[in-house]
Write a structure and sequence with these properties.
The protein is an alpha+beta fold and about 450 residues long. About 55% of the residues lie in helices and about 15% in strands. The protein has a five-stranded antiparallel beta sheet, sandwiched between helices. A five-stranded mixed beta sheet has the order 7-9-10-12-11, with helices on one face. Strands 6-8 form a two-stranded antiparallel ribbon. A hairpin with a 7-residue loop joins strand 9 (about 370-375) and strand 10 (about 385). It comes from Bacillus salacetis. It catalyses: ATP + protein L-histidine = ADP + protein N-phospho-L-histidine. It is a multi-pass membrane protein.
């Protein structure tokens, strides 16, 4: 299986190869065209120069001078009369040259004419210029051997090929190095996700900056941290549930065995049965809360919002819990404006208030006051604040108070019957309404919890 670094390098290399090839072809073609055009223009200019000399001074000496001059260069000149009869040449005229002389058009423009340009197949490049001084007229033919030009272009091809290969090798090395540098973070992230899939959440990814790779790395790191917290919370949750169930079940089992003994009085048996009943009720309450949380997690519970008047709803809840507060000699005060409305699910809102009041009842001493206050802190929102004069919560515990099965002072909570699920349910239900929960507490002075919906 190819690594992503190899794939990236291959893709980049292929793209650059295509681009480099197109550029090389264009540059190579342009240079060859330019060079051949220079050759054509050079011999054409020499032919025109000889034409001008002949038109100025057409003599035997001039003809011999032109032929002698070109014999010392890499070009050849052939001068003919108007009937294409050769009257002077710098070198012997070959058959191929004769054919070009005989085959060119009769009409030749003043600036001259290129009559052979195939430098790849033919032995000569050739031009013709017509001269006419009034008395004499004819043609000046210039020939240049194509072998030096082919040799030059072969060298040019070789250099282009070597430059292309060398450039490709250098680019390949650079791309492979860069692709490894760029894909190393991706490989680290891949390995990290494999660790996560195997249940190993102790993943540490380096900081990669603020780009897309950095954001992806931070997201994976956050996922790993969240999964680790979830795993720890799950283990703690299972341990807490097991512990919460084990204690009342142990009581039930023990007192059932005692109640079944022969010879104990009815008074004692009834006392044991009441303990069994209380512990059974605690188990049922715990299971109901767990079931409620499970429904919230699975989104199987429904929130049916409607406009409700809060004061009658709060008064109704106060009547339900009033006897429990009276038995503990606690005072429940309700402070509510006459007309305050909220857009909420009445059943779920009642459940929220009941849980808050139940907590206040459990974690407060006798002869204390618990108050429920309704207010409108800002337009479109309603605040419900439940304040007690109970034991209070240490400041370092406040951040954990909404965790499931988290309890402050476990021994006291156990005596008062708390399971550590009430506030979790409150938080989940309030957030399901799109609201928020805030808590303030001082140890030994009481707790104030405000929900905002």
């Amino acid at each position: 299986m190819k690594k992503i670094s190899t794939k990236l390098a291959i893709y980049f290399l292929a793209a650059v190869l295509i681009m480099e090839s197109l550029l090389m072809i264009y540059l190579h073609s342009s240079m060859i065209d330019t060079r051949t055009q220079e050759e054509f223009q050079s011999i054409l200019s020499r032919g025109n120069s000889h034409r001008d000399v002949l038109e100025d001074s057409y003599t035997e000496g001039t003809l011999n001078h032109i032929a002698h001059m070109e014999s010392k260069t890499d070009t050849e000149v052939v001068i003919t009369d108007e009937n294409k009869k050769i009257i002077a040449s710098s070198k012997d005229v070959s058959d191929g040259m004769r054919n070009l002389i005989n085959d060119h058009p009769q009409e030749v423009p003043r600036e001259g004419l290129l009559i052979e340009s195939d430098w790849e197949k033919m032995n000569y490049l050739a031009t013709v210029t017509e001269y006419n001084n009034g008395a004499e007229e004819g043609y000046v033919y210039m020939f240049k051997n194509t072998k030096p030009l082919r040799s030059l272009i072969q060298k040019l091809n070789y250099h282009f090929l070597m430059a292309g290969i060398l450039g490709l090798l250098i680019i390949a090395v650079i791309y492979f190095l860069l692709s490894r540098i760029l894909t190393r973070p991706l490989i680290n992230m891949k390995e990290a996700t494999e660790q996560l899939s195997n249940g190993d959440f102790l993943v540490k990814l380096p900081e990669l900056g603020k780009d897309e790779l950095g954001e992806l790395s931070n997201s994976i790191q956050k996922l790993a941290n969240d999964l680790e917290n979830i795993q720890n919370d799950r283990l703690e949750f299972l341990a807490s549930v097991s512990h919460e169930l084990r204690t009342p079940l142990t009581y039930i089992q023990g007192y059932t065995a005692v109640a079944l003994r022969e010879g104990i009085s009815d008074e004692k048996r009834n006392e044991y049965l009441r303990i069994i009943q209380d512990e059974s009720g605690r188990i049922v309450h715990l299971i109901e809360n767990l079931f409620e949380l499970a429904k919230i997690d699975q989104n199987t519970f429904t929130i049916t919002k409607q406009e409700i008047e809060l004061c009658p709803l709060i008064q109704s809840v106060a009547k339900k819990v009033g006897p429990a507060f009276d038995r503990k000699n606690m005072t429940l005060q309700i402070s509510c404006p006459k007309t305050v409305y909220a857009f909420a699910d009445p059943l779920r809102l009642e459940q929220i208030i009941l849980n808050l009041l139940d907590n206040a009842l459990k974690y407060s001493e006798e002869n204390t006051i618990t108050s429920v206050m309704i207010r409108s802190p800002e337009a479109g929102k309603v605040g419900i604040t439940v304040t007690d004069q109970g034991y209070g919560i240490p400041e370092n515990e406040l951040q954990h108070i909404f965790k499931r099965l988290y309890r402050v002072e476990k021994s006291r909570s156990r005596v008062s019957g708390g399971s550590g699920l009430g506030l979790s349910i409150v938080k989940e239900l309030v957030e399901a309404h799109g609201g928020s929960v805030a808590i303030e507490s001082k140890e030994g002075k009481g707790t104030s919890i405000e929900i905002l919906i």
